[in-house]
Amino acid sequence: MNPDILAYHNTLSESDVLIADLLAAEIDKGLPKAENKIWHRHPVWFLDGNPIVGYSKLKGGMRLMFWSGMGFDEEGLQPGTGKFKDASITYTSVDEINPRDLKRWLKKSKIIQWDYKNIVKRKGKLVKLKP
């Protein structure tokens, strides 16, 4: 595991570490070619410099967020604010994580992507990447 992500995990409670460890392992399996690092203070995985998935500690649990998740058409993922194309799910227990769902979402995350990498260049305009 990336040492910076491991350090992030070390700041979490015991129950949140269980969630974070499982998420990190499953994301690494599902996105083996992705770069991962701490970005905006939480773990994020990137494909070709484009943020794909990450998780962060919130008051209500651990939030798993897919940057292009609104395009996945998945009931389990809740859309973000609408400004971007993100969708997420919050876990309060490791038992709530459905590995099948996670595997499916990670598969979709490789195919369905909006170009967040160049959002500043495009002055906030998002463009869908073509597979």
Give an overview of the whole structure:
- There is one protein chain.
- The protein is 28% helix and 28% strand.
- The protein starts with a helix and ends with a strand.
- The chain has three helices and eight strands.
- The strands form two sheets. A six-stranded antiparallel beta sheet has the order 1-2-3-4-6-5, with helices on one face. Strands 7-8 form a two-stranded antiparallel ribbon.
- The model has no long low-confidence stretch (mean pLDDT 92).
- With 131 residues, the protein is α+β, with helices and mostly antiparallel strands.
- It has one domain: Aspartate Aminotransferase, domain 1, CATH 3.90.1150.200.
- The longest helix is centred in the first third of the chain and has 17 residues.
- Strand 1 and strand 2 form a beta hairpin.
Topology:
Elements: H1 3-9, H2 14-30, E1 35-39, E2 42-47, E3 50-58, E4 61-66, E5 78-79, E6 87-91, H3 99-111, E7 113-114, E8 128-129
Antiparallel strand pairs: 1-2, 2-3, 3-4, 4-6, 5-6, 7-8
Search tags:
alpha+beta; two-stranded antiparallel ribbon; six-stranded antiparallel beta sheet
CATH architecture: Alpha-Beta Complex
* Fraction of residues in H or I helices: 25-40%
Estimate the strand proportion. Answer: 25-35%
- The succession of helices and strands, N to C, reads HHEEEEEEHEE
CATH structural fold name = Aspartate Aminotransferase, domain 1
In spatial order, strands of the major sheet run: 1-2-3-4-6-5
Largest sheet: 6 strands, antiparallel
Structural class: alpha+beta
How many E-type strands? 8
Number of separate domains: 1
Radius of gyration: 14 Å
What are the low-pLDDT stretches, counting only 5+ consecutive residues below 50? none
Q: Ends: how far apart? A: 28 Å
Mean pLDDT: 92
Number of helices: 3
CATH class: Alpha Beta
Global geometry: globular
